[in-house]
Specification:
With 223 residues, this protein is an alpha/beta fold. The protein has two domains: 32 residues; 181 residues, Glutaredoxin (3-Layer(aba) Sandwich), CATH 3.40.30.10. 37% of the residues lie in helices and 18% in strands. A hairpin with a 5-residue loop joins strand 8 and strand 9. The protein is globular. The termini are far apart. About 4% of the residues have low confidence.
Length: 223
């Protein structure tokens, strides 16, 4: 009888250890950090996407670009190579959502000011008005760090095509110039492979908090 209880005790201890291991494995599997989604043109509202690519469901990348920043420097995709960045669209004379968006971009800049992996890119949707001196004035007013955050202007058609075929962040105006744009409040998170990993309401503090978390997650995933 004593031998039976000794054997049972060994069995109980072994069963307990095995159960603990199984529970630990299940816990770790369930708590694996899920990656951020990779967004394609087909994931966006059609009104934001150029009609020629609304059907695309994979392999989307931000197109190459060549624009001029607040210092008169040409900015291209090479300046964002191997960077995580947040893009948006604005204009300096906007008095509605743009000031809020710019303030939130400043908050992101502040959070990652010493992180060389994270940058910001704000495109003017009124490039004729937003000349280099105008952008420079706006940059100084809003506390833009030139090494972290580019405010860019350039050829209107080029910017329009970027908005409609790469970032999906503006609506067509429908009046006058075929390249007139109505920008949205969206902030777009781009990974180091030029893929869209999230969109966020640039006027909503809660959305910005989520964006900050997602940038940090993306950094962990891309190590």
């Amino acid at each position: 009888m004593l031998s039976f209880f000794k054997d049972y005790k060994k069995f109980a201890i072994g069963f307990f250890i095995l159960s603990a291991l199984i529970i630990s494995i299940i816990y770790n599997v369930l708590n694996v950090e899920k990656p951020l989604p990779i967004y394609q043109p087909a994931n966006f509202e059609p009104k934001l996407v150029d009609s020629t690519i609304q059907h695309v469901k994979k392999y989307h990348r931000i197109a190459d670009f060549s624009l001029i920043n607040q210092n008169g420097k040409t900015i291209t995709q090479d300046d964002y190579k191997d960077k995580i960045y947040v893009a948006d669209f604005f204009f300096t004379t906007c008095q509605t959502i743009c000031p809020i968006m710019t303030d939130h971009m400043y908050d992101i800049q502040k959070e990652f000011i010493n992180d060389k992996d994270v940058m910001l890119l704000s495109h003017s949707v009124t490039p004729v008005i937003d000349s280099v001196p105008q952008l420079k004035k706006y940059a100084k007013l809003k506390g833009v760090n030139d090494t972290k955050w580019n405010l860019v202007t350039g050829d209107k058609k080029h910017i329009y095509e970027l908005t409609r075929k790469s970032y999906f962040a503006v609506l067509t105006d429908g009046n006058g110039d075929q390249f007139d744009m109505i920008h949205t409040e969206n902030f777009i998170l781009i990974d180091k492979k030029q893929r869209i990993r999230g969109t966020y309401d640039g006027t909503d503090p809660e959305a910005i908090s989520q964006l900050l978390k997602d940038i940090k997650k993306l950094k962990r995933m891309e190590k």
